[in-house]
Amino acid sequence: MSDSALPRIAVLGAGHVGPVIARVSVEAGYPVTISASGDPERIALITRILVPGAEPRWAADAVADADLVVLAIPLHKFATFDPALVAGKLVVDTMNYWPPTDGVQAMFEDRRYGSSEIVQRRLAQSTIVKSFNHTGYHELEEERRPVGAPDRRALGVAGDDAAAVDLVAEVVERIGYDAVRLSGLSQGRLFEPGGPVFGASLRRDDFERAVSVEAA
Amino acid sequence: MTTTPSSDVQTTAAGSATFPLVLGLDTFGDLTHDKDDHPLSHAQTIRNVVEEGVLADQVGVDFFGIGEHHTDDFPMPAGDVVLGAIAARTTRIRLGSAVTVLSSDDPVRVFQRYSTLNAVSGGRAEVVLGRGSSIDSFPLFGYDLSDYEILFEEKAQLFAELLKGGPVTWQGTIRAPLRDQDVVPHTESGPFPAWIGVGGSPQSVVRAARHGYSLMLAIIGGSPARFAPFSQLFQQALEKFGRAPLPVGVHSPGHVAATDEQAREEFWPRYLEVIRNVSKTRGFAVPTKQSFLREIGPHGALYVGSPETVAQKIAANLATLGANRFDLKYAMGGLPHETLMTNIELYGTQVIPRVRELMA
Ligand SMILES: NC(=O)c1ccc[n+]([C@@H]2O[C@H](COP(=O)([O-])OP(=O)(O)OC[C@H]3O[C@@H](n4cnc5c(N)ncnc54)[C@H](OP(=O)(O)O)[C@@H]3O)[C@@H](O)[C@H]2O)c1
Hints:
The complex is a heterodimer.
Chain A (H helix, E strand, L loop, with lengths): L8 E4 L5 H10 L4 E4 L8 H7 L4 E2 L2 H6 L3 E4 L18 E4 L5 H4 L12 H8 L4 E5 L5 H6 L11 E6 L2 H14 L2 E6 L20 H12 L1
Parallel strand pairs in A: 1-2, 1-4, 2-3, 4-5, 5-6, 7-8
Antiparallel strand pairs in A: 6-7
Chain B lengths: L9 E2 L5 E2 L3 E6 L14 H17 L4 E4 L12 H10 L5 E4 L2 E2 L5 H14 L6 E4 L6 H5 L6 H16 L4 E3 L7 E4 L12 E5 L3 H10 L2 E5 L9 H13 L7 E9 L3 H23 L6 H8 L6 E3 L1 H15 L3 E5 L7 H23 L1
Parallel strand pairs in B: 3-4, 3-14, 4-5, 6-7, 7-10, 10-11, 11-12, 12-13, 12-14
Antiparallel strand pairs in B: 1-2, 8-9
The complex binds NADP nicotinamide-adenine-dinucleotide phosphate (NAP).
Organism (chain A): Planotetraspora kaengkrachanensis
Keywords (chain A): Oxidoreductase
Protein name (chain A): NADP oxidoreductase
C-alpha cells in the first residue's frame, strides 16, 4: 500500500498514541515503522493486528532509515531518551507536559519556554516540529476527512525550520486534516494543554482565529 | 456462581470460546445531591451506594462494581469496605472493584481485602485492576508518577502470583521480596475472577494476556467499534502465551430513565459539569451539546436513554466487540440518589432482560 516516493516515517512509541499515528500514516500511503523501547518482537502482535502494513523495528534501525521521526513517548521518559538516537533527523514532537498526569518534570518547569522548545534544546542536533499533540488519540483516526469536506478539521504544525514545517504539514494534509502552519516553535505553546486549541475540534478558519486571537 | 470465569467456558462449533453474558453496574461513588440540588455529605453518599448495591441485587443485576477515587466529588477510596456492607445484605450479586488502582496499592493488601470480601460474600468477589487514569492516589500515597509503568507491571505480576494461592516467592524493585510467603485468607475454591481495565493502550492488552487476567475495556469516549481489534489482540496474545481464552468486558458510562428525552435532560447538565471539572485537571476541551449528542448516538461511547435504546446499544456493541460482559457506569456527580435508584431498577428489570433477548 505504501508509496516509495513518500517520506519514511518512524513512529517511536507503541502505547495509546503511537499505533494510531502509525495506522493513519500507513493508510495515507507512507512507509511506516513502529518501535517501543525494546525488542520489536514484543510489539509484533500489536503491529500485525492494529497497524497492518507497518513494520516493527528496533528504534535505532528505524530512525536511521527514516525521513521523519514521530516521538510519541510519555514525557516523563524524555529525560532518559538518548538525543544521539535522532541526531540529524526531523522529529515531530507529539508530547504534552501536564503536571497533574505526568508529575512535575524539572526539565519542563522553565515557563519561559514551551515544552517543544525544551525538547528542541535537548535534541539540539535534530529539527523539531510540534504537531498532533493537541488532539485526542482516538479522535485522530475518527475525524479524518478528505480535502474539501465541509467538516474537515485543522491540526496545527509549528516549527522554526520552514522546510521541516512544510514536510510535516504535507503529512497532516494527506492523513486527512487541514494543516495550519505557525512559524516558530515558540508558537507551539498555543497547542499546549490549557491553550486555545487543545482538545478542540476546529475547522481551519476557526483554528486560525483561535490561535491569532491568542497570539495577538 | 462461585466458579472462575474460565471454568464456565463453552466451545462453539466454530471453535471459539463463549462465556456467559454478564450485565453489571459500576459507580465511582459520585457525590450525590438531594432533591433541592444541595450536595450530600460524603458519609451519606457512601450509605446511598450501599442501598444502590442492595437494589441492584434485588432487580437482577449480575455484578456491582465500585471504582477507587480520592477526591471531594468522588469520595470513594475504600470501595471494598462498602462492598462488604452490600455483601452482608445480598446473596446473589457479584461484587468487585471498577477499578482498583493497583499501581499505588500493595498487591498483598489488595489480595487480602478481596479474598476477605470473597469469604464474607460466599465467593462473590472479583477485582478489576487498573494503572489508574485518575492518578490522585499517586501524590496521596507518596508515589512518583514517573514510575507509573514499572509500578503497574511489577504489581500486576505479583498479584497474578498471589491469585494462584499457596506460598508466594517474588522479587522485584517496587516492594520487599516475598519468600515462600503464605498469604491469607486462602480462597475456598480457587482464584476469584481478576481483570485488567484498559483504556486504549495495546500494550496493556498484551500485559493482561501475559499474566492471565480477563480484559475489561473502559470505553468512555468516541466510537466503541474502534476497540474491536483489542479483543482480537487479546485472544491472539492469550494463544501466543499458551493460555486458554478469557472473557472480555466493556465498561462505559450512561444513564437510563423512562424515556430518551428524560434520560438526556437528567444526564447532560451533570455530565457537562463533571467533565468541565475534570478538564481543569486534564487540560482538555469541555464537551458541547453537539459532541454529547454524538456520544449518546449509535457510534458514541455513552449509553443514555430509555431501556430500549440502552439495551439495543449494549447488544450491538457487545456483538461488535466480541465481548460477553457489559458494566454500565451509572451515576454522574450531582444526580440525586432517587434518580439513580430509578436508573438501577430500569436497568435490572428492563434493560437486562431485553439485552438477553436480543443476544439469545
Ligand atoms: N492521550 C492523548 O490523547 C494524547 C494525544 C496527543 C499526544 N499525547 C502525548 O503522547 C505521548 C505518548 O502518550 P501515550 O499515552 O501514548 O503513552 P503510553 O501509552 O505510556 O506509551 C508510551 C510508549 O512509548 C514507548 N517508549 C518509552 N520510552 C521509549 C524510548 N526511549 N524509545 C522508544 N519508545 C519508548 C513505550 O514503550 P515500552 O513499553 O517498550 O517502554 C510505549 O510504547 C505523551 O507525551 C502524551 O502527552 C497524548
